[in-house]
């Protein structure tokens, strides 16, 4: 026994509530986190999808209160290509000491062709390739701070027909709702009266429910105030938005709006459209949550599907359930162990069969030997019997001969005596 | 080479945009903070030091609470680590605090292996995190992070220099965890001795290449305070949970006949500095360093051990899929090979045994052939004898017949003679 014993106590997580007497100071942790995050800077990737002419670029400009899309950097509707492209532009913005790298991904050509089958495929491919990049970066041996270029939010623009969703809308959302946070928007909402808008929204939500499309869900919080706002937004989904690149003076206020002969539709007026709700939700309150859901849900789905395919080769779906709680390597370890035990069993079986066959053969050999031995014994016995018989005959023969010879001799003797007598005395 | 130092904006083509108004993303840090607060924070402290040096007392003092702790005996067989987790709350901030105590450290006669349980414990926590990170279905965001964020190394207040156990242990730990060395029970050292002691300790650490945690100086908000604190290392601390009345205030202190050592008096000891640095200023940085530097180092070594590489022989970067697929192919090939080997071995065994048995069979047949031959020989002899006998019998019979015919003619004469 060595002089030391390395013993571990199992992690006794006796979690106890402790009340602190006096100020310790870790309540400053949030501040520390704040400082570090500001120093690091933020990034966000926003995707805008919709047919051309729905006001996507204008909306983006309105959101960031500046001409992101302008003459020099035209929006998607001005860049229509023969096939659907997925293009991104990055802008760096600073506000209040906070730096944000905003990547806008747009899809010029989406839905504009006569045959729009599979026009969503480039979008899916783009999202997947960003996930793939992140997965590879995360899985490297030497990791560095990874830029997060995954798509965090997709604004889907619905044409303001007033009736319902188009088949393309449904198809697109169905294919992408498990890859990205989808926020559907009713574009150019200033063509709908409030009642028409209400109807339209109800119809859209009905269809979304019917097709089991999972759009981005605003999370509930513990805060009463916030929950009220969340409820407001939920009731007004999908948000109907209006965008504008021009600033107009209304009642001596300078507002963004669209000037019509019959009045001005103000972008930031809550009674005119839901733009303010969108901006508040997207940028001011839920930007972080959109990133979190992308990271914790969409990305993890992608990752686990990818790794499961690698490990199990996608063959046996019944096995995969229990295996997903391990890493692919642990998976292989387990398979190796299984294989080893299977081989052991096989070895034992083969061993058994082998032994049995050997035993059989040896038994046969023994039987053969016994048989031969028996036959040999038999023959020996025969021979001995013959021998004996012969001996007996000879003995008999000898006896007979001896007898006969003795007899002959006696007869001879007799004869000789008779002869002698004859010769000696006359027979009277 | 901290991972956080790399500018994430560097290699992208981007343009600067001047905003025409208040967009509102300056609330992003607040959003992030509010999410972290909801999630709660967790912090893990490892206290390394001899029995009785004041580890538990210091923890109680730091966190202003009485954590349960039995006094450890000096007669432990080895060093073992005792982690305890507590849920603390201050205003709206929840902290899951884990304090890991090293029981029995420095008590054995042979202390050569004393550092091992500590290193093993730290590695185990890294390993657990790594395993979670590698799982196919994982949930990192609600994983209870048990990795050690800070190791407080308690130096005995001898006043001279570091013990060799201290140097050995710290050297083994400095690449795995953030170390802050502290001089325990500092109320036994006078001011002048303390100054010399601190200088001696720091120079010994430097000359032995021990990397201790440096308070970060890259954030303007805390550069000044951090760099000044860096100069006061190692902190000389005194811990106490007893309260003593000094003047008209009640403070935590140790009462001696010759005076009262006030824990929170900066001219008496560096406790306030330690608390400031550890908790109020750099807690988040400690967590970050642990994750971005120490954990990454562990992970890198582990993956390299397992045979993962970032680039293949042609210096093309591997994709994760390729890596796993390659490993899987190798693995399956390996299994197949083993199977083949086993089969082959059996085939050989069967052949051998067959040959053996055939040999035996042959021998058996030979033996019986021989016996058969012998038997044939015997039979022949018997036959011969039989023939001989037959001959003799024939000869005898002939004699007999001859004698009989002779005797048949004779008796007539005899009869004649008799008349």
Task: Describe this structure as you would to a colleague.
The complex is a heterodimer of chains A (428) and B (419). Chain A is of the alpha/beta class and 428 residues long. Chain A is 50% helix and 14% strand. Chain A has ten helices and ten strands. Chain A has helices spanning 29-40, 56-63, 121-139, 167-176, 194-210, 224-235, 275-285, 287-312, 320-323, 328-424, and strands spanning 16-18, 42-49, 87-95, 98-106, 153-158, 182-186, 239-240, 247-250, 253-260, 263-266. In chain A, strands 3-4-2-5-6-7 form a six-stranded mixed beta sheet, with helices on both faces. In chain A, strands 8-9-10 form a three-stranded antiparallel beta sheet, with no helix packed on it. In chain A, strand 9 and strand 10 (263-266) form a beta hairpin. In chain A, helix 7 packs across helix 8. Chain A is rod-shaped. By secondary structure, chain B is an alpha/beta fold. A six-stranded mixed beta sheet of chain B has the order 3-4-2-5-6-7, sandwiched between helices. In chain B, helix 7 crosses helix 8 (283-305). Chain B is elongated, with a radius of gyration of 49 Å. At the A-B interface, strand 1, helix 1, strand 2, strand 3 and strand 4 of A face strand 1, helix 1, strand 3, strand 4 and helix 3 of B.
Give the topology, please.
The complex is a heterodimer of chains A (428) and B (419).
Chain A (H helix, E strand, L loop, with lengths): L15 E3 L10 H12 L1 E8 L6 H8 L23 E9 L2 E9 L14 H19 L13 E6 L8 H10 L5 E5 L7 H17 L13 H12 L3 E2 L6 E4 L2 E8 L2 E4 L8 H11 L1 H26 L7 H4 L4 H97 L4
Parallel strand pairs in A: 2-4, 2-5, 5-6, 6-7
Antiparallel strand pairs in A: 3-4, 8-9, 9-10
Helix pairs in contact in A: 7-8, 8-10
Chain B lengths: L14 E2 L11 H12 L1 E8 L6 H8 L17 E11 L2 E11 L11 H20 L15 E6 L8 H10 L5 E5 L7 H17 L12 H11 L4 E2 L6 E4 L2 E8 L2 E4 L8 H11 L1 H23 L14 H99 L1
Parallel strand pairs in B: 2-4, 2-5, 5-6, 6-7
Antiparallel strand pairs in B: 3-4, 8-9, 9-10
Helix pairs in contact in B: 7-8
